[in-house]
Design goal:
It is built from twelve helices and no strands. The protein is mostly helical. It has one domain. α2 packs antiparallel against α8. The radius of gyration is 19 Å and the shape is globular. The chain starts with a helix and ends with a helix. The model has no long low-confidence stretch (mean pLDDT 81).
Length: 297
């Protein structure tokens, strides 16, 4: 892999992780502060993602793709996983606080991706195992002050959301056209969106606010639509284990965002947790490359 490829992977990954962290903040603001119901948030989020991705896809490659037999069109399994994640993520946060929900979600993502990699025959080096444990310990340490006993249903729903996102990420590692695949994955959720909307209307379980709708639109169009397309592009240069570990950076980024945008205090706990997570991720990302280079020499 050339140096420009390394650099592009770093930049794409950084953008995607920041988008993920921003998505968590937008979701929390819409559901808790603005009173938008979880079902409407999910539907508006996905529809906004479809619209933004459709515009980007058409402007950049839509016409060309019409005559390209090899173009990417996403997949129905990926679309199903995307919908399960989005819906579960929203509804789980009704009964879980932010710290508990994040721990369950990203813990489930990491475990899912690592287990699938092991089942596929990937063998982790000792340094990767150590880095994985170190990063996860830092993540748990950061969340400890806000962890409460989760509700059973909240735990189950968020775990399913994490498993779904882990599978969606693994599917994305094979994408040759991230923007097209992401657009078609979002577009393929339309039947599920329609069914969910009918159910919400029948149950009369819709609560809309102007600010809540706007937050959901930003979450869907930018943090989700563009963020997920960029994440699929970043996955080209990442192993499954690296991708799983890097996502543990999201709560650290969110905490730093709170310091910058919400005047939160920089605490010793935040600094220690950040060092543990960053150190563990460095071992995972750089450890295998360094050891394999040594063996070649």
């Amino acid at each position: 892999m050339s140096m420009p490829s390394h650099l592009s992977t770093i930049l794409y990954t950084a953008f995607a992780l920041i988008a993920f962290a921003g998505n968590s903040v937008l979701c929390r603001l819409a559901l808790v502060d603005e009173g938008l119901d979880a079902g409407s948030f999910t539907l508006i989020r996905l529809l906004s993602g479809i619209i933004v991705l459709l515009i980007l896809w058409y402007l950049t490659q839509g016409r060309r793709a019409q005559s390209d037999r090899q173009r990417s069109r996403g997949s129905w399994p990926a679309a199903l996983m995307l919908f399960i994640y989005a819906l579960g993520f929203s509804y789980a946060y009704i009964s879980l606080d932010t710290g508990t929900g994040a721990l369950i979600l990203f813990g489930a993502v990491q475990i899912t991706m690592v287990l699938v990699s092991l089942l596929r025959g990937t063998r982790l080096l000792g340094v990767e195992w150590f880095g994985l444990v170190l990063a996860f310990c830092g993540f748990v340490y950061l969340m400890l002050p806000v962890l409460n006993t989760p509700s059973l249903w909240g735990f189950i729903i968020m775990t399913l959301a994490g498993i779904a996102w882990g599978i969606y990420t693994l599917v994305g590692r094979g994408s040759v056209n991230p923007l097209s695949d992401t657009f078609h994955n979002f577009f393929k959720t339309l039947p599920l969106i329609i069914v969910t909307l009918i159910i919400l209307l029948l149950l009369d379980d819709i609560s809309l606010t102007v600010d809540g709708v706007l937050l959901a639109m930003v979450s869907g169009g930018i943090a989700s639509g563009i963020g997920y397309a960029v994440w699929y592009r970043a996955l080209r240069g990442l192993s499954a284990v690296q991708a799983a570990a890097l996502q543990l950076l999201v709560p650290v980024i969110a905490a730093l965002g709170g310091v910058i945008f919400a005047n939160d205090m920089i605490t010793l706990r935040l600094l220690i947790a950040a060092l543990l997570v960053l150190g563990g991720i460095f071992l995972i990302v750089a450890g295998r490359y360094y050891l394999l280079q040594r063996r070649v020499e």
